[in-house]
Design brief:
Blueprint: H1 3-18, E1 55-61, E2 73-79, E3 88-89, E4 98-104, H2 115-123, E5 127-131, H3 150-164, E6 176-186, H4 188-195, E7 207-211, E8 229-234, H5 242-251, E9 256-261, H6 268-271, H7 274-293, H8 296-306, E10 313-317
Parallel strand pairs: 1-3, 4-5, 4-6, 6-7, 7-8, 8-9
Antiparallel strand pairs: 1-2, 2-5, 9-10
Helix pairs in contact: 2-7, 7-8
Length: about 325
């Protein structure tokens, strides 16, 4: 019985943090670049990301973790054929073994809402698996507290998706690299992603990207082996305050970086405004190339990608 008031308070706080609809506040001052703190060196094996661009294929996988936890997953993957053009459904995968990137959507959203960003990652040589959560997606019951169940959902999805790489006859057999995996997410999906490195630590994860996230409900007790983290947050975020995202970033004990967009709000400035989206896409892609492919040149390019056009500031502690 003692747990119920705590759960209710957490639900109320999550609702306030993730469903606000107020006008964007004035941009905060650009953060001063702090002196890099000592951090463990990530075990990123040296390698090289693909130099070519890939066509993008997509398929749906129906999963269910039990009970009311249906988890349909959208899988975008590098496909054979010429790069560019529209995403093609259920086409053959490109040759090669590709790292896996999990993506968690925001409250009231769907995986396909993020297709422009996610397919940029896929074209660079990553398989992206994005579940649609049962209670927090478009058309769900809006149960904000269910966000706290989503880290376990994502771990389940990862297990099932990696199994496709070993399944006879599956189009992705032999195409997935189970040793190179990252978790990413936006807003409530950012909470989910943080949870995968704190209270619901999944030891299979090598890196994380948090877009407009907060540690509310999942905490900041980062655990397990070193996993570099990249935070992306708008300083005019009207839903999750910039300070909330910065507080989680400050708590990360591992190599980390934060991309701060002075004019970025909660969603549009991060994911649809052409200039900021280009910077976010390029920066996150280079981060994934480094952490999952071990591409040292990608790490070296990160600062220039992040600060191109004066769209964002980059606190680099990688």
């Amino acid at each position: 019985m003692r747990r119920r008031p705590t759960a209710l308070v957490t639900a109320a706080l999550l609702a306030a943090a993730l469903t606000g609809c107020s006008e964007p506040t004035a941009p905060a001052e650009s953060p001063a670049t702090a002196a890099p703190s000592a951090a463990p060196t990530p075990e990123v094996p040296a390698g090289a990301a693909p130099a070519e661009r890939f066509a993008v294929g997509v398929r749906q996988v129906k999963l269910n973790r039990g009970g009311d936890r249906a988890l349909p997953v959208t899988l975008w993957y590098p496909a054979g054929g010429a790069a560019g053009g529209a995403v093609k459904r259920s086409v053959p995968a490109a040759d090669g073994r590709f790292p896996v990137v999990l993506f968690s959507h925001g409250l009231g959203a769907r995986p396909e809402d993020y297709q422009v960003l996610l397919t940029r990652w896929v074209a660079a040589g990553f398989v992206v698996a994005a579940p649609r959560f049962p209670h927090t997606s478009t058309g769900g019951d809006g149960s904000v507290l269910d966000v706290l169940n989503q880290p376990a959902d994502v771990s389940y999805v990862l297990t099932q998706v990696l199994a496709l790489g070993e399944k006879a006859g599956d189009p992705l057999r032999g195409r997935l690299d189970p040793e190179q995996v990252a978790a990413t997410g936006h807003s409530a999906g950012g909470v989910t992603t943080i949870g995968l490195f704190t209270t619901g630590r999944d030891a299979r994860l090598d890196a994380g990207i948090v877009l407009a996230g907060t540690g509310l409900g999942v905490g900041t007790a980062f655990a397990g082996t070193v996993a570099p983290q990249l935070f992306v947050h708008g300083q005019a975020d009207e839903v999750v305050e910039y300070a909330a995202g910065k507080a989680v970033f400050d708590a990360v004990p591992w190599p980390k970086a934060m991309l701060s967009l002075p004019k970025g709000d909660h969603g549009r400035g991060l994911l649809s405004d052409a200039r900021s989206l280009s910077v976010v896409a390029d920066t996150t892609t280079e981060f994934l190339r480094w952490t999952l492919y071990g591409d040292a040149a990608a790490k070296e390019r990160l600062p220039s990608r992040a600060t191109r056009g004066d769209v964002a500031a980059f606190d680099d502690r990688l």
